[in-house]
Amino acid sequence: MKTRNGSWTFGFLLVLCLLILFQGRATADAPNSDSPLGANLHIFSEWSTEYTMVNAFKQSSPWLTQNWTMWNTGELGEIAFDADGWPRSLTSTTGSSDYQWIATLMFDGLGSHYPEGFYTVVYDGTGTLEYAHDATLVSHTPGKDIIKVDPEKPSNGILLKITATDPDGVGDYIRNIRVYMPGFDETTTQTFHPTFLDNISKYKVVRFMDWQRINWSVNGPMRSADDVQEVWTHPLHDAIQNPYYVYPTDSARSAGGAAEWDSRSKVSHARYSTTNGVPVELMVKLANELDADAWFNMPHHASDEYMMQFALMVRSRLEANRRVYVELSNEVWNSGFYQSQWFEEQGKAEWPNSTASDLEKRLSYFGKRSAEMCDIWELAFGSQADRVTCVIATQATNPWIGEKMLNCPLWDQGPCHAHHVDAVAIAPYFGQHLGREAYYDVVDSWTGQFDNGLGQLFAELEHGNVLTPVQYNPKVSLQEAKQYITEYANLADGLNLDLVAYEGGQHLVGVQQIVVNDTSMTELFIGANRDPRMANLYADYYAHWRDEGGKMFMHYASLGAYSKFGNWGAQEFADSVGMPKIAANHLFIDNNSCNWEACETPASYTPTAVALNSSTAASPTQLVYVLLFSLLVGTTAWLKRS
């Protein structure tokens, strides 16, 4: 019997190991399993061409107060909302108002680039919903409407209006509105749209910076597109808002992420485009569904408690064979972002007697806070800390900035890079000088040539020998970008850190207003991003990154419409085909592997119990790991008793 028990035990453990190996093999077969590229997701908004969820309402615009003559009366402050953002009543709290109903918009400006067909609208409560623009009501039953959407109509998007709510005054107001796209209804268990999943399936890592609204901090409320442009003097990202909207408070859009954990975005919120971005539960869920690693940014003003709770939630929900990158804020070196001002003020308060410049104080304080963040995540992950890659992100064109951040000489507990920092991250964009006013006259003259200037533009991008350098306006052709990559590779090697790219790619966009508003320049930049020669530049670019020892490269961005505010998307629309940048990305992924340590599946881990009574259930993979681990422990205990 002893021998037979031993044989049974060996057989059981063999089967168990095969099950674990089979699960690992399934993950390895994912299209991104060996990918050396990641992607930044486009901002989560009603005007993003990257529609992401089968319930389109989650990506709808902020509420609008409207009447028959005014698109937006700007009276949201007169409406009482519940904790999740649903209007309890349409009655003005002041007793006097101009609005007659409240509305929201989906798929704004996408034209025909979103699905036509029948959408299912379901909701709780009593009242009346009405539809306009591309949508017409087909049928109605209590709590459920079927609407027909025709994106070919001149007016783009779906306008949904609440024209009556809680008519009996018993508190049964309309809430929990869900707008399911064609092919889905209230019975679906799917969260993310299959087109969205397919478009990003080859990327090893997804960076959620824009989903988290990290950059959306400004001094004072954002009132219009013009106000935002005044703040975003360097519009790195397509963040110019639709001028339809008037925002009554900073909190109407994100204030750069929540500072405290209790104030974070919740799964139960009406939408994820108006508070603090997408809830962490759903970002982790997306990473799990993609078999991708996740890259999170901690808000600049996040408390230690926020960082710890965020890290613990990621540890408990992210599949055990997935890694996580963590970064503090975004581009603190870039004075065009409010967070850079915030860090500078903190640095000046921290070291008031230092003779260092204000910039040095900003960089040292950012390094200090980044180091503290890395220590917190290391503590939160404990025995699974090998799953975390903590990065300090710096300016690609200025290694001095990187050295100050990494060494933080003003902090008495430095150097900062010694505090569980794993990588230095840069954004080695190329072509940004072409959008500067200093080169405007020459570049604009190219647009009058037979090819609209594309020949001159690509010669300058590739070789940097067409434009004459202008003082204080350095050129960043592909050649200069390669040089910066090499310099940072040497810096990273000297500190025993990995070199990663938090963003990167082409950077053809107007930086000053004269370029932004020049239609010919916009057409030139858009044409270049649709030109096959861009794919050739990308191939050269990525090859140099690889040859210099660069690790994970995060392209900016996965998808996004081309406009005068930038041409960031590898694709323009979800249904775009033949785009050169996505072709170049896929070619590099197919022909290169990620063979560095931080890209491999973690060698060991401790399965973590997952709270099943939360708003987002545990993933199947997490449950499999927990079950198999429990069986192994139980079998071992039984053998000992035998």
Q: Would you mind describing this structure in some detail?
A:
With 642 residues, the chain is α/β, with parallel strands linked by helices. Helices cover 33% and strands 14% of the residues. Helix 1 (2-28) packs antiparallel against helix 16, helix 6 crosses helix 7 and helix 14 (532-547) packs parallel to helix 15. The radius of gyration is 26 Å and the shape is globular.
Record keyword descriptors for this entry.
642 residues, disordered C terminus, single chain, disordered N terminus, globular, eight-stranded parallel β-sheet, four-stranded antiparallel β-sheet, alpha/beta
Total helical elements = 16
Task: Please give the number of β-strands.
Answer: 16
Major beta sheet summary: 8 strands, parallel
Q: List segments where confidence is low: pLDDT < 50 over at least 5 consecutive residues.
A: 1-27, 217-255, 606-642
Please state the overall shape, judged from the principal axes of the Cα atoms. Answer: globular
Structural class: alpha/beta
How large is the radius of gyration?
26 Å
Distance between the termini: 11 Å
% residues in beta strands:
5-15%
Helix content: 25-40%
What is the oligomeric state here? Answer: single chain
Mean model confidence by pLDDT: 86
Please give the order of strands in the largest beta sheet: 15-14-13-12-11-10-1-16
